[in-house]
């Protein structure tokens, strides 16, 4: 697993790199001292995992994550324990307190190995998307106010436009993000995410039932319970795309 260390303290980076050197399954491919340089390194190196400090000059660790899409796996490494709850709300792999203890790091590596084995066994290994296109196995960072999530796109069943925002439907959550539906339509894999109307993009994997609707349109019911009307024009395109 290729890893990038992001921490503004040089000694902290060196110490963590030294501790990780005993684990052959983790290859440290680079290190950064701030969010700005990290964005460049992430684009260049495409690591599977980042060891991320939270308190850094300029953007903090959470702010960095907001700018990434898709998002690598994250282990937070910080001197402050008050961020632990927030870290796990965004599905971080682990949360290490400085100075990092060997035994505690070993536990983190065990979690990483167990997760990798489980993903391989389930044949759901995430692959970083090519630049510009996001596929259903990609993971994205979603923030709405103080709440944050790491979300695999396959778990998102519906995108709904609300003015300059888009509401994202996954599990029982309905966060709003400052993106346009047109922007998402350009970035999402259209073999899975279908532009049903001016206001909606649906995940075709989440369709539970379809029935004919007024004026040649369709009414789609999603497995989450939402109903979305597909216009006649889009219904015709959908039928053509999905027919044998």
In short:
The protein has 7 helices and 15 strands. With 244 residues, the chain is of the alpha/beta class. It starts with a strand and ends with a helix.
Would you spell out the secondary-structure blueprint of this structure?
Elements: E1 2-6, H1 10-20, E2 27-32, H2 35-45, E3 49-52, H3 61-66, E4 73-78, H4 84-89, E5 94-97, H5 102-122, E6 139-144, E7 147-152, E8 156-162, E9 165-170, E10 176-177, H6 181-187, E11 193-195, E12 200-203, E13 207-212, E14 218-222, E15 227-230, H7 232-242
Parallel strand pairs: 1-2, 1-3, 3-4, 4-5
Antiparallel strand pairs: 6-7, 8-9, 8-12, 9-10, 11-12, 13-14, 14-15
Averaged pLDDT: 86
Structurally, the number of domains stands at 2
Strand-residue proportion: 25-35%
Count of DSSP H/I helices: 7
**Strand order of the biggest β-sheet:** 2-1-3-4-5
* End-to-end Cα distance: 41 Å
Alpha-carbon Rg, integer: 20 Å
Question: Helical amount among residues, as a percent range?
Answer: 25-40%
Shape: elongated
SSE class: alpha/beta
CATH C-level class of the largest domain: Alpha Beta
Would you kindly provide a written description of the structure presented here, covering whatever features stand out?
With 244 residues, the protein is an alpha/beta fold. The strands form 4 sheets. Strands 2-1-3-4-5 form a 5-stranded parallel beta sheet, sandwiched between helices. The relative contact order is 0.09. About 5% of the residues have low confidence.
């Amino acid at each position: 697993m290729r890893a990038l260390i992001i921490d503004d303290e040089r000694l902290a980076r060196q110490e963590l790199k030294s501790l990780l050197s005993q684990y052959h399954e983790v290859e440290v491919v680079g290190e950064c001292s701030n969010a700005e340089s990290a964005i460049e390194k992430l684009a260049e190196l495409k690591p599977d995992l980042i060891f991320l400090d939270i308190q850094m000059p300029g953007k903090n660790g959470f702010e960095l994550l907001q700018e990434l899409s898709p998002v690598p796996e994250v282990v937070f490494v910080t001197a402050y324990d008050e961020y632990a709850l927030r870290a796990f709300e965004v599905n971080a792999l682990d949360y290490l307190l400085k100075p990092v203890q060997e035994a505690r790091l070993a536990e983190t590596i065990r979690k990483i190995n167990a997760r990798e084995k489980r993903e391989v066994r389930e044949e759901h290994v995430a692959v970083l998307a090519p630049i510009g296109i996001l596929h259903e196995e990609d993971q994205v960072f979603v923030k709405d106010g103080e709440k944050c999530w790491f979300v695999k796109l396959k778990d998102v069943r519906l995108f709904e436009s609300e003015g300059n925002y888009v509401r994202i439907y996954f599990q029982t959550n309905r966060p709003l993000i400052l993106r346009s539906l047109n922007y998402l339509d350009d970035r999402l894999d259209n073999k899975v995410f279908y532009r049903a109307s001016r206001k909606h993009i649906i995940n075709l994997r989440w369709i539970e039932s379809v029935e004919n609707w007024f004026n040649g349109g369709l009414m789609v019911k999603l497995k989450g319970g939402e109903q979305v009307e597909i216009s006649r024009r889009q219904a015709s395109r959908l039928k053509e795309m999905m027919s044998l």
